[in-house]
Structure formats: C-alpha cells, structure tokens
Design goal:
single chain, alpha+beta, Heat Shock Protein 90, 4 domains, 5-stranded mixed sheet, elongated, binds adenosine-5'-triphosphate, Ribosomal_Su5_D2-typ_SF, Hsp90_fam
Length: 638
C-alpha cells in the first residue's frame, strides 16, 4: 500500500452545483451577491484611487422578454489575470485580500463564493469588464453552468463591470420589475451606494436611515435628510412603515450599542392583533449594509412576539451562505442588548407618546401580560397599565382591585357559570384566570401591591368567599337539603355570602375538572408521559369524586323560608326545593356547565308552577309528581 501523500481530488462539477444551487435558501440571493460585488468594486476603486471618481452607482435591469437580468457598476473592474485569479477561482476573492491590506470595514465580500450563486438562476453568465488600472483593455468572461469558462478581448468600456444573466426558464420571473424592486429594496436599503432599477432616476435605497443620521452632516449634504434628523421620531416611524411589510408600526425606538454589542438599528411595535401564543417577531440583520438574515427572530426575546425591526452589526458572524448567524458570544450579547432595547423603547413610548402607548396596550394586552412575567422592568412598567380581561371587559389590575374592595378576584374556570353570576350579582368584576398569563400576572401584582387575591374555584378561594355557616344545620336538615338540591358529584355546603338574594351557587371544583381533563387527554394519548406525571403530581390530592360544591346561602330569605317550611312539614316544601334545584341546573347549563339533568329541571319548573297555581284540591297530586321525579333520581324526598 502506498504511504505517500496524495492530493485530494475535487469534483468541480459537483462542487459548483452544490455551491450554486444548495448553499442558499432562495435563488434570489444571487441578486444580493451581484449587487454586493458591485458595491465592493466601487469601494475598491475609491480605496485604490482616492482622488478619482467620487460616488458611483449600481444599476440593475431586467428584461422579461429576453429572460435576462444585468447588474452594472462603475467600480474598479478586473484585469484579465484578476478574472482568472479571483472571479473564476472558487474560494478566492480580491475583496478579502484588500480588506486585509487596507483594514477597511466597508468591504462586504469575504468567502470568494458569492459569484457562483449566479449559476443558481442563470444558464449562462457573461461578465464584461474594464479595469481602472488598464482603462484601454476590455475583457469578456463567459460561462455556461460555471464549470468551464472563456475570456476574450472586447472593446474597452468605462471602468467598471457589467454582469449579464441569461435566466433559467424556471427563474424567468426574476426579470420582472416588480420582483426586482421588491427583492432589491429589502436587500439594499442600507447600502451606502445608490442602487437604481432600470432608468429610474430615484435610487431604490433613498430612504434616510434614522440611526445613521448626523444632523450636522445632513444639514450640509441633503435638506431632506436634515429634516428627517431634526425629527428623529418621525424619521423612525417612516422607516419602520416602509420596511415593515406585514404590519403598520405603532411606535418605533432605536437600538444603540451597549456592553458587548455593537448593534445599531430600529425596533418597532407592529400593529397586529396578536394573541398570547402568536409569534410575529420579525428581525432583519444587516452586515456592512447588506441583508444577512431576513428572519433572525431568535435574536429578539421570545416574549416579544409583537416586535419587528432591523439591526446592523459588524460583530455578528455570518455563515458561508450569509443567510444565518453563528451562535457565538456576540450573538448572545446582541440578544441581551435587544431585550434591553425593547424594554427601554416601551418605557420611552409610555413616557413620550401616550397615544401610541394606549394603542399598544389595547392591541397587545395579552402578550404584554406574559411579557411582564419574563422581565422585571417590564413588569414594573406594565403592572398598573396593562389591561386584564375580566367579566366586565378589560380592566387594569388597579381598577379590578378597587372594584373588588381591595381584593383581586380571579376565576379559574373557562366559562362564567355560577361564579360569574355571583359576581354579577355583587357587581364585582372577576378576572378571567383561564386566559393567557392572567393568573400569574395578578398573583404577582397582588404580591407587589400587597393586596388580597381570591382564586375562585380553588378550595382556598372558595373559603375566602363563602363564609362558614356559624351554626351547623341539624343532620337531618343537611341530609334532606343535599338530597333535594344536589346532583351527582355535587357536595352541598351550607354557607353565608353576599348578596343575600342569591340562594345558592354551584362552584365547579377546577382541580377535579383538570384531573378529569388529564385522564381524558391521556385516553386520547395527547399528553406526553413526562407532562402527564407532572400534571398528576399536581392533581394527586384531588380524588375527583366531588366535582362541584353547591354553596347554600343561609343568609338568603328564600333558603330560610325553605328550611322553615321543611321544619313545619309544609305541603309546598318539595315544590319549593324542586324549584331551586331546577333553577340551579338551568343556570349552570346557561353558563356552559352541563351538570344535572336539564330536561328534568325544565319539567320540574313546569311542575312547580303548576303546583303553585293549582287549586288546593290538586296540590297533592302535583307534589306527588315532583316527588316522583326525585325518586327517579334515587334520592330521598321530604
Ligand atoms: N463586479 C465586480 N467588479 C470587480 N470585481 C469583481 C466583481 N464581482 C466579483 N469580483 C471579483 O471576484 C471575486 C470573487 O467574487 P465572489 O462574489 O465569488 O466572492 P467575494 O465577493 O469575494 O466573497 P463572498 O463570497 O463573501 O461574496 C471578488 O473578490 C472580486 O475580486
């Protein structure tokens, strides 16, 4: 076996295909790479010939009928040896060498790969170029597929380069002006050189970049920019409105360098009706003016689903495709800086732009509740402002507390049911603890402001609301009431509560409900094992046999009369009890709690009305009918 060193073979054809077609997520990236080469070439020319032409531009043209796109620059151009050494050599570029020599951080290219992406969209690529160092010589590079190429002399042109693509049939749409405008506006918005589409005299990237504005310099150079930098808030809003494709901005605030992060840019609150679980984070990252990542949402905090933005940073390291970022220390530093910038920006908005702040609270209330729990400063900012959904519409925690006489009332169930009715009767708003983040937010608010929190549906909460009856009922009375009023799984609990007009309240045991749901979900195998074990640990103390507590209000005149009638063996006792029971079942059905037999309850109601309006002679029959209904359910009767 040979021990000598051998050269690794490269299958150039395969490599070109991989690089051209699989490195980038979208073939449109080819446009970005060609515009970037134009920019670097203009920069090269300025660095090599500082006294020469100033400015320079890039022009992109599309011709749908011919199926071509061209990118032209007035930059440094290439000599023939440079064509061979840099343009046609994969992995080598003059741009990187130039950066190393000059230390310029304006140059974008680094890998010597970008040009190959032209072959992802084009069958044939032609490059016609004249170097500013040899202004009398012209060269034309031509390649079909990228694997082989030719270079021939052509008449000299003004220094610079014209790259022409003959598009593959499947990419012919790229030549459409609308497509080019859309893609290039986004790619080039931060490029310092003007990029023109066709003969349009207005560059695609003419929008003033608010975080790059220097009032003194702008005043000297451009009145429009000077105006923009005089009103930074208006300039930010305009940039955000133009850039944010999906949503209108409600407020925009700057990203500034801070410890470990050089990121600058703009963040804005999107005017989208988002919900707790929606993630509309939208962040574009630019490196030296070129779009690097269209969707860098992970740089934004997870809770900031309503934030859009643009940042630029020279410390974030791109992957070779320049579409994603290395997850290194700088990445994490920028993540922290952006979280701070969002919180600072929200503070600034609350302080300086109350109208916008109100709209943000109204639009993103639910998400902000969750966000407040993830960030202490945000919690402090939002604690008294953010709306909480309640039975009386959205209220701030402070208003909820004031209306509850200093207590925050929170329902744990999903529907109003009797709980809500109780509170309606008391005219106390009750927070919807089943909604996203409401319960933990209010618990924390209660701690912060030192106020009582009653969670209705939990044992503790119920105890706080329904005072124990001070004198227990006689055993036979309690047993009779339970039989006459409670359905299966309901535990009758004599109590005292306001308002006195309310005779009874059925409060489902939310923990038992949860247990039931977990068992059902498990039957459907929807809960993964680990989650199920956790949930079970939580519901272990609930045996599940008591699904609801039926609180009987001993302060209620109706209940007192009923007990008096029972003690006096009044003939209407069973009718009256049946009426209350029917009312309970009907109301819980109306509240979305299907407990008890609704049909029997409705029939019971009819029977009671009949009994109450009957002649004395027929009362006994009706009472018997009601008694029969009870017996059918296997319960004791009076
Ligand atoms: N329009 C142009 N004008 C002058 N030189 C060019 C032009 N386009 C490409 N080149 C030369 O060809 C080289 C290779 O270009 P290519 O786009 O493949 O890589 P790059 O720009 O150097 O790096 P990257 O892969 O990071 O974009 C460049 O470094 C530059 O020297």
């Amino acid at each position: 076996m040979s021990q000598g060193l051998r050269a690794t073979e490269v299958d150039l054809g395969g490599l070109v295909t991989v690089l051209a077609s699989h490195l980038y997520s979208t073939p449109l990236v080819a446009l970005r790479e060609l515009v970037q080469n134009g920019h670097d070439s203009l920069t090269r020319r300025r660095l090599e010939d500082p006294s020469g032409q100033n400015g320079g531009r890039i022009t992109v043209r599309g011709d749908r009928s011919r199926g071509t796109v061209s990118v032209e620059d007035g930059g440094a151009g290439l000599t023939e040896p440079e064509i061979h050494a840099y343009l046609a050599t994969v992995g080598t570029g003059y741009t990187r060498l130039l950066r190393e020599v000059t230390g310029s951080d304006e140059l974008i290219g680094a890998f010597g790969l970008g040009f190959l992406s032209a072959f992802a969209v084009a069958d044939e690529v032609t490059v016609t170029t004249t170097s500013h160092r040899e202004p009398t010589a012209g060269h034309r590079y031509r390649s079909v597929g990228g694997e082989q190429y030719s270079v021939e002399p052509v008449p000299a042109r003004a220094p610079g380069t014209l790259v022409e693509l003959r598009l593959k049939a499947e990419h012919a749409h790229i030549a459409d002006e609308a497509v080019l405008r859309d893609v290039l506006t986004r790619y080039c918005v931060l490029l310092p050189v003007p990029v023109h589409l066709g003969d349009d005299p207005q560059p695609l990237n003419a929008v003033p970049v608010p975080w790059r504005q220097d009032p003194a310099q702008d005043q000297a150079q451009d009145p429009a920019r000077a105006q923009a930098s005089a009103d930074p808030h208006a300039a930010r809003m305009e940039f955000a409105a133009r850039f944010g494709r999906r949503f209108e901005p409600l407020a925009a605030f700057p990203v500034t360098p801070r410890e470990g992060s050089d990121a600058t840019g703009l963040l804005w609150v999107q005017d989208s009706a988002t919900y707790g679980t929606s993630d509309n984070r939208d962040l574009a990252v630019y490196l030296r003016g070129m779009l690097l990542s269209e969707d860098a949402r992970d740089l934004l905090p997870r809770w900031a689903g309503f934030i859009g933005g643009v940042i630029e940073s020279t410390r974030l390291t791109p992957t070779a495709s320049r579409e994603d970022l290395q997850r290194d220390d700088h990445y994490r530093a920028v993540q922290e800086a952006l979280a701070d910038a969002v919180v600072d920006g929200l503070y600034e908005t609350a302080r300086l732009h109350p109208g916008a702040w109100r709209r943000i609270l109204a639009r993103h209330g639910q998400e902000l509740l969750g966000a407040a729990l993830c960030d202490d400063r945000l919690f402090t900012l939002l604690a008294d402002d953010v709306p909480v959904p309640t039975s009386q519409g959205d209220l701030t925690a402070g208003a909820l507390r004031a209306a509850g006489g200093g207590t925050l009332h929170i329902a744990l169930g999903t529907s109003g049911g009797f709980e809500e009715m109780l509170y309606r009767a008391m005219q106390v708003p009750i927070a919807r603890g089943d909604r996203y983040a409401v319960l933990p937010f209010l618990r924390r608010y209660g701690q912060l402001r030192g106020c009582r929190v009653v969670e209705l549906g939990s044992e503790d909460g119920n105890r706080a609301l329904f005072r124990d009856a001070d004198r227990p009922l006689a055993a036979d009375e309690a047993a009779w009431l339970a039989a006459a009023l409670a359905d299966d799984g309901e535990q009758l609990t004599p109590a005292r509560f306001a308002p006195a007009e309310l005779p009874l309240v059925l409060v489902p045991d939310r923990e038992a409900e949860l247990k039931q749901r977990i068992e059902d979900d498990q039957a459907d195998a929807r809960i993964p094992g680990a989650a199920l074990r956790l949930a079970r640990a939580f519901t272990a103390r609930t045996d599940g046999s008591v699904r609801a507590r039926l609180y009987l209000n001993l302060d209620s005149p109706a209940v007192r009369r009923l007990l008096g009638a029972y003690r006096a063996a009044h003939p209407g006792t069973a009718t009256a009890a049946g009426l209350l029971r029917s009312m309970k079942v009907i109301m819980s059905a109306a509240g979305g709690e299907s407990r008890g037999d609704l049909t029997a309850a409705l029939a019971g109601l009819g029977a009671a009305v009949a009994a109450l309006t009957a002649d004395t002679g027929t009362t006994a029959n009706t009472t018997t009918a009601n008694t029969d209904t009870s017996t059918d359910r296997g319960e004791a009767t009076a």
